[in-house]
Amino acid sequence: MSITSHLKPKSLMLYGVAIASVVILFKVVTNYGEANLQAHPNINGRYRLIGAKLPPCFQAKPVILTIQQSGVYLNGNLSNVETKTNSSLKEKLPLKGKWQNQQLQLSGLLPAKQICESLLAQSPTNDNLLVNIQADLPNYKPEENSQIKGQITIDKLGEKLDFTTQSYSVDSNSDSNPH
Question: Are 99 and 80 in contact, with CB atoms under 8 Å apart?
């Protein structure tokens, strides 16, 4: 069987139609994706919690919310500025959650000494606090240094506390300390 037997007009037309169909399908899918599918904005970073009704220990030692994002999945941590935490990618962050319908949700157990030791005194037998964080992010744009506004619930407090965040970097440490 020689190569010329495959180069008949019917075979060439079949190959041409198959290749043209694949190219057209690829263009249609690409155009649809570019027009209708968008990734969530990047919210990776560290944010200082600010709020009038936050517990006094949150105000004495500013509390930092760390968020790592992979698509819609989020990992996070809540710690005061003085807590030495390594924010490397290998660190296992205790808060887990998702970003769906422009809403951020994180929850998990955190050591009380990491965020507010006065809460540890309320329950000396259990040094972990259940923390839930919810925030609506309808128009979040990281390039505009957008704030995150939401609510935090800590099981020992039993109420939802409103908070706002401001972007926090290690260099802004001296600015954020009120003392």
Answer: no
